């Protein structure tokens, strides 16, 4: 028998799927984190080998029967970074006297795109801590919108909601801005009750700015003026992502799938965003992903060995 393994790697866990060459799922499991930019390639290599070995052991197979292992992971959006993990993992396997026929690293967004539409044309909008959009047309051309990171982009993301929420709190603290419910919510959840504490948390304690996003959404749902302004601005930014992708792909209609809890779950923010799409972009259809990103990695692995 011959097999394929797809891996969806992230900062907290790695989801693995092993299939036959027809893409029929035989086993799936979760393992440790595989963000190599944070943990380093050696630690991630240990994690990957453990997960891969577990997959083949569970179906009583051998590593030599695996035609391709494809990992989509955080931090692999640039080819140079992806190649570093490919090379380092291959060297790690060599030291362990283990061999794989083919190991490929892609971005987590790329495998999510393949999984969402089962390899067919479509577009995904990712809005979690950060934001980015990918699309693939009928000719297989891949397009990208956004993804410039927190300093230059991440519009509509949890980070941007949190940042703007904390800006509103800071202005409320010293009288430059109007009173906002966010000040009380931030105080209750994080114990931030003075400008000094806020400054210390942000600049010394590596405070998770995106963790404030749910509070912004909560305040907006309660009609807080400052929070409503933020969600209005950031949903418009995500709308601009979709408009731009639609123009780039030049399709008459476009299917879009949402990735990331901020917009894929039901909440005030995602509901407002969907209403705007329905009114302003009737040619856009929001659909649920067909497959998981890990299955998207399997589809890409199958494509690699067929070339």
CATH hierarchy, class of the largest domain = Alpha Beta
Q: Please indicate the count of domains.
A: 2
* CATH homology group of the largest domain: ATPase, nucleotide binding domain
Q: Given the C-alpha coordinates, what overall shape results?
A: globular
| Number of beta strands | 10
Give the helix/strand class. alpha/beta
The amount of helix comes to 40-55%
Whole-number mean pLDDT: 91
| H/E topology pattern | EEEHHEHEHEEEHHHHHHEHHEH
Write the CATH fold name of the largest domain: Nucleotidyltransferase, domain 5
Number of helices: 13
Could you please describe the fold and organization of this structure?
Helix content is 50%, strand content 20%. The protein has 307 residues and is an alpha/beta fold. The protein has two domains: 3-115 and 291-306, Nucleotidyltransferase, domain 5; 125-286, ATPase, nucleotide binding domain (Nucleotidyltransferase, domain 5). The strands form two sheets. The protein has a five-stranded mixed β-sheet. Strands 8-7-6-9-10 form a five-stranded mixed β-sheet, with helices on both faces. Strand 2 and strand 3 form a beta hairpin.
Short account of what is shown:
With 307 residues, this protein is α/β, with parallel strands linked by helices. The chain is 50% helix and 20% strand. It has 13 helices and 10 strands.
Features:
single chain; 307 residues; alpha/beta; Nucleotidyltransferase, domain 5; 2 domains; five-stranded mixed beta sheet; 50% helix; 20% strand; globular
């Amino acid at each position: 028998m011959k097999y394929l393994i797809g891996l969806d790697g992230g900062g907290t866990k790695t989801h693995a799927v092993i299939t036959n060459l027809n893409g029929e799922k035989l086993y799936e499991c979760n393992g440790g984190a595989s963000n190599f930019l944070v943990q380093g390639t050696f630690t991630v290599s240990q994690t990957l080998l453990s997960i891969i070995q577990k997959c083949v052991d569970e179906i009583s197979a051998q590593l030599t029967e695996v035609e391709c292992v494809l990992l989509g992971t955080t931090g692999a959006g640039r080819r140079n970074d992806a190649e570093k993990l490919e090379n380092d993992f291959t060297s790690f396997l060599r030291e362990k006297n283990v061999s794989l026929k083919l190991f490929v690293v892609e971005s987590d967004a790329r495998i999510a795109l393949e999984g969402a539409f089962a390899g067919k044309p479509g577009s995904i909008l990712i809005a979690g801590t950060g934001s980015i959009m990918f699309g693939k047309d009928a000719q297989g051309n891949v397009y990208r919108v956004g993804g410039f990171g927190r300093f230059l982009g991440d519009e509509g993301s949890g980070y941007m909601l949190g940042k703007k929420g904390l800006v509103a709190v800071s202005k409320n603290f010293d009288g430059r801005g109007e009173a906002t419910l966010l000040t009380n919510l931030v105080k209750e959840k994080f114990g931030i009750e003075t400008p000094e504490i806020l400054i210390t948390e942000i600049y010394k304690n590596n405070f998770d700015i995106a963790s404030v996003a749910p509070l912004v959404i909560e305040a907006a749902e309660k009609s807080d003026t400052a929070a409503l302004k933020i969600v209005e601005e950031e949903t418009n930014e995500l709308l601009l992502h979709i408009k731009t992708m639609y123009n780039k792909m030049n399709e008459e209609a476009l299917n879009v799938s949402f990735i990331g809890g901020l917009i894929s779950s039901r909440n005030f923010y995602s509901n407002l965003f969907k209403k705007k799409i329905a009114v302003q972009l009737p040619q856009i259809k929001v659909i649920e992903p067909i497959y998981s990103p890990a299955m998207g990695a399997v589809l890409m692995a199958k494509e690699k060995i067929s070339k």
